[in-house]
Amino acid sequence: MIEFRNVYKTYDNGTKALRDLNLRVNEGEFVFIVGSSGAGKSTLLKILMHEETPNSGEVIVNNTRLSTLSHKDIPYYRRTLGMVFQDFRLIPNMSVFDNVAFAMRVTGASTKAIRKKVPYVLAHVGLTDKSHCLPNELSGGEQQRVGLARALINNPALIIADEPTGNVDPRMSFEIVDMLNQINRNNGTTILMVTHEHALVRKFRRRIVEIQNGELVADSGPEVDYYV
Amino acid sequence: MFNNFKYLVREGLRNAWSNRLMTLASVGVLVCCLVLMGSAVLVSVNISHAMTWLKGENVVMVFLKDAVSGSDSYSVDDVANQIKSVDNVDPNNVEFVPKEEGFNALMSRFDKGLEIIDALGDTANILPDAFRVGFKDQSRYDATVEQLKNLDVVYTVRENREYAKRLEGIRKTVTVVGVWIVGLLLVVSLFIITNTVKLTMYVRKLEISIMKSVGATDWFIRMPFLVEGVTIGLAAGIISFALVAYIYSSAASAISQVMSAGAYPLSAIILQLLLAFLGCGIASGAMGSLVSIGKYLKDDGGVSGE
Asked: Which helix (H) or strand (E) holds B89?
C-alpha cells in the first residue's frame, strides 16, 4: 500500500527533515505516527500528498512510484487519498453539504450522484441536520466530522489524517478517532494518523510508528490481525 | 463535464458577488484605464480626421504658362496627365481650374472697386489656367513642388510650405505621443488588475489549497477566477463605453463649433468602439486572473497550508 525506501528530505534552508526513512504500511492497516514537533511527521505526510518530493529514495503508494508523477497527474493521484487536517480546512462561505460535495464535483461527478451520496455520508458522520449550516456555525468536533465526510466521499483506499484531534475537545477527539477506527475496520480503508495524543494511541492499540529527528526510531510492527 | 462547467461559471459569479467590494474596486480601476485609453484613441482618431480634412484642403495651385493656356492646341487632359505622372502627386486629387473660375474666386474676395474691373471687360482677367493638385505624402512636399516647377507647361506653383511642414510635425507628434500614452496606460492597467486579482487570490489562498488537496485540476481551480475576471472586464467595458460615448457626443458638438473639420462622427465608429471596449475589458480581466493564479498553480505545494 505505502512504501518509503531510503527516503531523504532536506529543505532549502538546510533542515534535514527525513534521513534514510524506511517504512512499509500494508493495505487495511491503521497506523499512528508519533514524534515530537519537528521530528519529520509533517514532511512524511507532505511527501505522501506529493506536496514535497524527497531528495533521494523512493515512495510508492498503491503501486504508483510518486517520483514518476507529472504535474498533470497529481490531482488524479490526490483523488485516491482522503485527507483530514488539524485546522479542518473547510471553505468558509460554503455550507456543510457544499463542502463535502466539492470533493465530488472536482472528480466530475453528476449533480444526481452528489445529491444521492452526500446526505448518505453526512448521515454516517452524524451531521444530517447540519447540512445547511456554514462551518463557523459548528463546533470544532462537528467541523472535523465535516472534514472526515469530505475525506470519505470518494471512497479512498487511504486516509491521511494530520493531527485531526488537535483542535477538538477530548470527548470529541475520542469520537473522531473511533470513527476512523470504524471506517478502517468496516471498509478496510488504510489510515495513517499523525498525533501527539498518547492517551488516544494507548486507548486504540493500533500500530505505532515513532519518528525522531527524521529517523524511524520505533515501530510496533505490522498489524497482522487486520490484514485484508 | 457540462455539469461542472455550469457549476464553475456559477461559482465565479458567486465569488464576484461575495467579494463585491473587491469586484467594485477592480471594475473602478479598469473603468478609469479604459476611459483614459478610449479617450486617447478618440483624440488620435479626431486628429487624424482633422489631418485628412486639412490635407484635402492643403493643395497647391499649379499655374500654367500663358503660352500654353493661350494656345489653341493645348489639351487640358494632356497637361493633367503630365501633372499626374509626377511622383507623389495624388492622381485623384488633380482638378482643373479654368482662368474664369480662378478670376471669379479672386474677385469674390473684394467688395469695392469692382466697377473698374467691370469696365476693363474681358481683358481684366490676367490669371492663367491652373490646376489644384494634392500630394500623397506631405513629407516629400518640397521635392514634389520642385518637380512640378520643372514641368515645361508650368509657370509657377503657389504653395504654403510652412503650413505643410507644421501639419507634418503635428501628425508625427500625435502618432508618437498617442502610441506612448496608450502603451503606458495598457501596462499600468494590467499591473493594477494583476495586483487587484492577486489580492483576491491571497484572500482565497485557503480555498485554492483546499481545492488542490481534494484533487482539483488546474483548469477546475482556474475557471471560477477566470469567470470572475471576465465578469469584471465585461462590466468595466460596458460602463467605460457608456461613459466615453456620452462624453464624446457632448464634446463633439463643441468641437464642431471650433474646428471647421468637425468631430469624427460617433455613429461611424460606435460599433468598433463598443467591441474595442468589451474586448479590452474582457482581455484585461481574463489576463489579470490568469497571470495572478499562474503562480499558485505551478507550485504543487500549499495543500496543507504550511
From this structure: strand B89-97
